[in-house]
Every structure is written in C-alpha cells, then in structure tokens.
Specification:
Blueprint (H helix, E strand, L loop, with lengths): L10 H4 L2 E11 L2 E9 L2 E3 L11 E5 L2 E3 L7 H17 L5 E9 L5 E8 L5 E4 H8 L5 E3 L6
Parallel strand pairs: 4-7
Antiparallel strand pairs: 1-2, 1-6, 2-3, 2-4, 5-9, 6-7, 7-8
Length: 146
C-alpha cells in the first residue's frame, strides 16, 4: 500500500476533533464545554437538575494571568483576559475543539476554534489570545513550571 494521500491528510490530523458548545468561561485559559462525540453521545457533566453543563478544559499552549490571586495587579490582568474571552466566546458559542493529552491537573488540553452560523471556522482562540495580549496578560505555556 502506498504512503501517498491524495488529500494530503494523515489520520492523526483528523483524530480528536469534536464539535462543542461553550457553557462557561472560567478564566482566560479555562473553559467549560459540552463536546459532541457523535452518535448522540456527549462528553459532559450533569448538574443537579440533570442539565448538561460541560466539562472543564484548559486552553492549550497559553497561560493567562490568574483571576484568583491576592495580587491585585495580576488579578486585574487575569480578569481583563477572562472578560475578553467571555466577549468573543460567550456561553452558547459553537466551537470546534481539538483535544490532546491531559494536563498536569487532569484537565484535557484543547485547541479551540470559533465557528460562525454558517459552520465556518474563523478564529483559533489559543493563537488569537497570544496575539491580542502582551506577556503580562497571556504567555506561551508548554505545561512546565511557570
């Protein structure tokens, strides 16, 4: 069998992609998302009323300033990033998500792509946040110590 692919795609390029809906912006680098795994199967948690509320995911490759800290300057920067993410990605936003490994605290790392009403992907959130903010607000992050 030939290694040639007329589409130029490898199966690993297509694995681990899911449609999703944002249910909560936790902070600048954490979102709660309901993932549609296909065949009427969803990766989510249920609240006490049985409603799907999503699962916490960590935005891959970035570290946003903390929102839960006693350092008021850092908290202000963290809230600025979280507010911006909430503005571009409010609850109900349809996204395309590529999951990768679980991070050091057990949450899956994800690349988040915003999808418009015509099902066109128009923004890679991870890269956009790095471009939008200076390093005091959002830094590249590879999972090591900060």
């Amino acid at each position: 069998m030939s290694d040639f692919s007329p589409l130029g795609l490898h199966v690993d390029d297509l694995a681990w992609w899911y449609k999703g809906v944002v249910t909560e912006v936790i902070d600048g680098d954490s979102l709660r998302i309901i993932l549609d795994q296909g065949f009427n199967s969803f990766r989510t948690k249920l609240d006490k009323d049985g409603e799907m509320v999503g699962i916490n995911y960590r935005v891959n490759g970035i570290d946003a300033a903390e929102t839960r800290t006693r350092d008021l300057a850092e908290k202000a920067r963290g809230l600025a990033v979280a507010d911006y993410v909430l503005e571009v990605c409010p609850p109900g936003t349809r996204v395309l998500v590529r999951t990768s490994k679980a991070g050091k605290f057990g949450r899956y790392l994800v690349d988040v792509y915003l999808v418009n009403t015509k099902d066109v992907v128009y923004l890679h959130l991870n890269g956009h946040l790095l471009d939008k903010f200076d390093e005091d607000h959002v830094q590249p992050y590879d999972g090591g110590s900060r």
